[in-house]
């Protein structure tokens, strides 16, 4: 990955994470907190599924373990600390 693409992805990711609280506050006027989180995770899951659809699956158990650990820390641990 070249530096320009990496920098662009960092800016986009930071912007999305930073704006999530403002968007969440607006969304709470229309949805319950649990439904809003469910919608957010469903949308994120669908976008990630489209992103990795044609990628090869990991071959070793170590790769799967790393993916599982990153997924747990990035999702459950972060959301647990926020809520």
From TrEMBL:
GO cellular component: membrane
UniProt domain EamA: residue ranges: 9-83
TM regions (residue ranges): 34-53
UniProt signal peptide: none
Keywords: Membrane, Transmembrane, Transmembrane helix
Family: Belongs to the EamA transporter family.
This protein's name: EamA domain-containing protein
């Amino acid at each position: 990955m070249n530096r320009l693409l990496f920098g662009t992805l960092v800016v986009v990711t930071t912007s999305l994470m930073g704006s999530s609280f403002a968007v969440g506050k607006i969304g709470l006027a229309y949805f319950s907190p649990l439904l809003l989180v469910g919608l957010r995770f469903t949308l994120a899951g669908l976008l990630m599924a489209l992103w990795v659809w044609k990628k090869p699956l990991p071959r070793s158990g170590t790769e799967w373990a790393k993916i599982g650990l990153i997924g747990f820390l990035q999702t459950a641990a972060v959301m647990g600390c926020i809520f």
